[in-house]
Amino acid sequence: MTILLEQVAMDEGRKVGEGGDGSSANLVLDAGFVVVPEPKVPVSSSGFVAPEINAFGHAFRSYDAESERQKGVENFYRLNHIHQTYDFVKKMREEYSKLDKMEMSIWECCELLNEVVDESDPDLDEPQIEHLLQTAEAVRKDYPDEDWLHLTALIHDLGKVLSLPAFGGLPQWAVVGDTHPLGCAFDESIVHHKYFIDNPDYHNPAYNTKNGVYEEACGLNNVMVSWGHDDYMYLVAKKNGTMLPSAGLFIIRYHSFYPLHRCGAYAHLMDDEDKANLKWLHIFNKYDLYSKSKVRIDIEKVKPYYLSLIQKYFPEKLKW
Ligand SMILES: O[C@H]1[C@H](O)[C@@H](O)[C@H](O)[C@@H](O)[C@H]1O
Ligand SMILES: [Fe+2]
Ligand SMILES: [Fe+2]
């Protein structure tokens, strides 16, 4: 099966100002029709076995178990839940859609990411480039033919550069952690849900019902999801005209949306394209979460392979 990129770009373009990604979402349009094979979801994978415990001796994603990271992580979610509001997300999307902060290649960004510490993650305290390569290499072993998925894995967390001064030096609560929609009720499955009580949207009747400002099946592209590294990297990839398939862009954009991909919350907002792409996100999530370990990848050895993928799917320099 194939899809026409122009069609996808137009579909997304019609949602301008409605929680979509703004008016210049369709750079690809200029190139006319580009036929991209839509990746088929393979029946099953082999190799990678998800470990039962993380590097700190706990189950993965234990947000309440006492550990050296627990308090910091909980405080992170307290701030995240208080400050991420519908208006805040709208403002951030507008600001960062300008892509006027930096010009650099994908690989340069991978290297920059090493400066970033993620305070939201109970399972990881390794430099971020290790996580990128661990995820990508684990995916590559099980899905050797899906090179777009290897590259998606490599770049999925690059948006964390938002916390660096050159990108506005955003606080952690606006960069990392799980994401959730704004403009409708906060689902109970969201980590440390109790802190929403101090969020103004929680008390706003326009925003605190099941559907809130949305209609059933309106499509996630119409939904304001909390601002952070996911949506930023999606904007960067899309607006710089990446050739990644829509499943790759969906993974980048929603990989932290655990309430949806782990708990099935907000499923009523998805449209058919979201549902198809969610299958790939489920596959990806296993590698993103469970490849986090102390095992280092030899960067110099794998670098040429990833540089070739970057060249295939991205322009040499991107606007950030
Ligand atoms: O703490 C982690 C980390 O910030 C990841 O990059 C993000 O994707 C996860 O959803 C989050 O739980
Ligand atoms: Fe992430
Ligand atoms: Fe990740």
Structure description:
By secondary structure, the chain is mainly alpha-helical. The protein has one domain. The chain has eleven helices and six strands. It has a two-stranded antiparallel ribbon. The chain starts with a strand and ends with a strand. The N terminus is likely disordered. The site of 1,2,3,4,5,6-hexahydroxy-cyclohexane has 10 residues, from loops. Its cofactor is Fe cation. Pathway: Polyol metabolism; myo-inositol degradation into D-glucuronate; D-glucuronate from myo-inositol: step 1/1. Its main location: cytoplasm. This is Inositol oxygenase.
Short overview:
By secondary structure, the protein is mainly α. The protein has 11 helices and 6 strands.
